[in-house]
Amino acid sequence: MMKKRLFRAWEKIIGEERDGIVPLLPLALLILLSWVYGLCVRARLWMHRRGLLRAGRIDAVVMSVGNLTLGGTGKTPFVIYLARRLRERGIPVAIIAQGYGRKAAAGLLVSEGGGPLVSAEEVGDEAYLFAERLPDIPVLVSRDRVRVGTLAVSRFGSRVIILDDAFQCLGVRREVDLVLVDATRRLRTDRLFPAGYLREPAGGIARASAVVVTRVDESDRDWEKELVSMDAVRTLPIDPVECRFRPMWLFQLLAGERRSLEWLRGRPVIALSGIGNPASFERTLCGLGAEVVSSLRYPDHWWYRARDLEEAQQRAAAAGAQAVITTEKDAVRIAAAGIDDVMGGRDPAGTKAPVLVLVVELEVARGEEGLWGLIDGALADRGVLVKA
Question: Quick one: which residues bind ATP (predicted)?
């Protein structure tokens, strides 16, 4: 539980709700560390610009999906959206993920295009979810993306390679570089890690082919004004693409029973998540009419244990909650724990709250034509599409 406590303490320190002078002291230390981190990041970027660090090439159209912050922008559903659209057009595509949080160090073939071949713990929650949601698309994990990308081309005939979470992975040349920005979070005024959420200075957005703004329907900030005020954004070839996440249905973990979203209306529930933006998940539940009586937040990519689920069940019993609601990525990690009894899998008396999973799909609200015009141009340049 130490990691969980440190995570909560860190979020409180860098957040905007600090009380008194004392919390400013650790914040000052984090700011000093962020300067050191920033020097390292800028040095690496400079070496790539000067050619001191070289980028490898994959013989395919390479599309990178990434972000400037520490996660929570919605990369996973966006990658699923891209891969599915390309596959529907008959274009052979493969996904390469880093496999953050995985327990196997070596690169692995997650799916040959027929569902997962390995466990979620071996490859990480995101790669496993790709293999589940996109059973007809090869999925691989490795830090050496050039090597496994070349493997995907030779073994599966992939014409397009999607690199998940690769905006900072400058060791691979790419034709399309998409950076995701969460409309509910500040970008220009955020600080570098560990004093903030930024992986690199916000000006790095200039390397992108396009900016994709997610959760536009949830934001009460003028995110559009903030983005347009950045010189790097104004010089991009297309306007920012606007997206939202549309809840689709619920299903019960283990049992697989599907329920409509109407089931949530007026019901007290526990929100359980270990993702980059838990607040967005909880807002979605409230927007669907659920009464979130308690929320349990764990660090991103958290691998659940029996006591975590026991705490959720205890809170549900104390608050009279009728279900524990979680996300698809969390469901992968909960199921991997193999603790059926805690989740109500072996509960004939029905005394435990069922664990329900909220399924969402990405929906482009504005700018889809420009996005696919950009992608089609890259595909045509490499001979994957015939120019009109």
Answer: 69-76
